[in-house]
Every structure is written in structure tokens, then in C-alpha cells.
Amino acid sequence: MERLCAAGPLSLSELTAGTRVSRQAIAKHLRVLADAGLVAGERSGRETVWELTPTQLRDAQRFLDAISERWDDALERLRASVEEDDQE
Fold first, then answer.
1. What angle do CA 18, 35, 58 make, to 5 degrees?
2. Is residue 85 over pLDDT 80?
3. Are residues 3 and 27 in the same domain?
4. In terms of residue numbers, what domain contains 82?
5. CA distance 11 to 60
6. Does residue 38 sit in the same domain as residue 61?
7. pLDDT for 27-78, tens place per residue?
8. How far apart are CA 10 and CA 69, in angstroms?
9. Same-domain status, 31 and 3
10. Selected residue with higher pLDDT from 5 and 72
């Protein structure tokens, strides 16, 4: 995901270049990410070029932001409660 974010669409060969991870392992990860709708692959000649799917990533970010906000609210209530107990 990081390499696709930084470099844009890449083939499996480009994604595996300079890593110790096998092509098979990266291909398996790409299939899982594709099934989740986070990346999409398009055939270009003999290879598939993979790219991020921005819509799905934005949806995931919104979901994570909502969870984060709920946790922030809960932690703030906990902090206020602890400080209130300390003042008594």
C-alpha cells in the first residue's frame, strides 16, 4: 500500500523490486486488497498494473476517523472523571 501511495500504479515486478518478499506473497496480498476493494489491477501486456482505489480508501478513512473520535470522547470523559475524583 505504501509503495502504491508513493509511486502510483505499479506492476508486480515493480512492487517486488528491492524487497525480500516473494512475488507470490505480494500477489496474494494484492488479491486480498483487491477483494476488499482497496486496490485494482488492470492487465497491461503480460503484467497487471496495480493501483489504489481512492473511493474505498476514503470510506475506510472516514470510518477510522469516526472510531477515533468516539475514543477521543471516551478518553476525555475518563480524564474528567479521574480529575473530578482527585479533587474530592
1. 85
2. no
3. yes
4. 54-88
5. 24
6. no
7. 999 999 999 999 999 998 899 999 999 888 888 899 999 999 999 999 999 9
8. 34
9. yes
10. 72
pLDDT of 87: 77
Which cell numbers hold the place of 35? 477483494
Q: Do 41 and 78 have their domain in common?
A: no
According to DSSP, residue 38 is labeled S
pTM over 0.85? The answer is no
Note whether 16 and 26 are within 8 A (CB).
Answer: yes
Spatial strand order of the sheet with 39-44 comes to 10-11, 47-52, 39-44
- Calculate the alpha carbon distances from 50 to 9, 43, 54, 65, 66 in Å: 5, 9, 13, 26, 29
CATH number of the domain encompassing residue 31: 1.10.10.10
Positive or negative, the CA dihedral 42, 45, 47, 52 is negative
The number of domains in the chain is 2
